[in-house]
Amino acid sequence: MGVTAENMVEKYGFSREDQDAFAAASQHKATEAIESRRFRSEIVPVSVPQRKGDPVQFIDDKQPRPGTTVEALAKLKPAFKKEGTVTAGNASSLNDGAAAVMLMSAERAAALRVPVLQA
């Protein structure tokens, strides 16, 4: 994905400064959403057993980096091309994730008394 990001930078002319500013703002928004528990009802906690000790509970996205600044991002070196502008700080992170979706008609949801999140 990093090389693809570099290709998009070349195609659309995004500056390094624009990328870093967008990345810092995105980190701030993600941190704010986690701290305000904005998506708490949409996240299912996952318990991961350990060889020793209690299971580890994951209840939030671990990727956001609170306190990320444009100044700190500007110090990072390109990650995918020697003369590139995409860095570990302004690129998407290498994460795994999962999602689930339940689809049904409005009538079926009403019959089951399931709240409809999106119509």
TrEMBL record:
InterPro entries: Thiolase-like (IPR016039), Thiolase_N (IPR020616). It holds the Pfam family Thiolase_N. Keywords: Acyltransferase, Transferase. One of its GO terms (molecular function) is acyltransferase activity, transferring groups other than amino-acyl groups. Residues 1-106 form the Thiolase N-terminal domain. The keyword Acyltransferase applies. SUPFAM superfamilies: Thiolase-like. Signal peptide: none annotated. Belongs to the thiolase-like superfamily. Thiolase family. This is Acetyl-CoA acetyltransferase.
